[in-house]
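Researcher: Re-running this chain for the archive, since the previous output was lost when a drive failed. Same request as before.
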Amino acid sequence: MPTDKEIEEVIRMLDEKTNEGVSRIGVHRVETEREDFVKEVHHHGRCDIGSPFADKDFKNIDCG
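Model: Regenerated structure tokens:
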């Protein structure tokens, strides 16, 4: 069960994001050994999070 301090920290992080203009936030809780683990993923307007397009690993093929 999270403590009041942990809940307040999550609320603070979410408030900071919305104050920066982030309009959509998805929060996923993952069990880890590290208490300080936070991973931020940006969405590029398409449903491609984690794809080569989102990671900028996609290379244009020279057809000419």
